[in-house]
Design goal:
about 150 residues, mainly alpha, about 0% strand
Length: about 150
């Protein structure tokens, strides 16, 4: 038998074994790389949620303080405006000689306008509170872009 007719050759078998080993190593490396990316992504998501919780707590603390101040101011303003309104009504009736109903109407209109202005100012201040953390939203966008580049 000649060498050409025999399909088995030791060098060819060694070459095939080395090729199979390279393929297995490439698969292992790819598996490790993908596994590492998944682990990193999971860690990143956990960190983002922790950051979001912290930012939310900070914003909520600010919002609670604003709401408490708003409620207290509103209550005191109501009591003060009631006393002031009665004083103005008596002034308009006794000193200027207005009829009692007209004094109450004028005082009510003025108090209503002042209350409306104060309400708008408080609402604008409350609109400044951001319950969706800005830093977290930006970080999530950046992380999504990073993960897309890694895949």
């Amino acid at each position: 038998m000649s060498h050409r007719s025999h399909p088995y050759h030791p060098i060819t078998e060694i070459a095939l074994m080395l090729e199979n080993l390279k393929v297995e190593q490439a698969v292992d490396n790819t598996t490790q790389l993908v596994s590492g990316i998944i682990v990193d992504a999971q860690k990143l998501v956990r960190q983002e949620f922790e950051l979001a919780k912290l930012e939310f707590k900070q914003e909520w603390t600010t919002a609670k303080a604003a709401l408490l101040a708003f409620g207290t101011a509103s209550s005191l303003r109501t009591i003060a405006s009631l006393h002031l309104s009665l004083a103005v009504v008596f002034f308009l009736t006794e000193v200027l000689g207005w009829k009692l109903w007209l004094s109450f109407l004028a005082t009510t209109l003025v108090s209503g306008c002042i209350a409306l202005m104060l309400y708008r100012r408080a609402r604008n201040k409350l609109d400044e509170v951001n319950l969706i953390p800005r830093h977290m939203a930006q970080s999530v966008k950046e992380n999504v872009e990073w993960m897309k580049k890694q895949m």
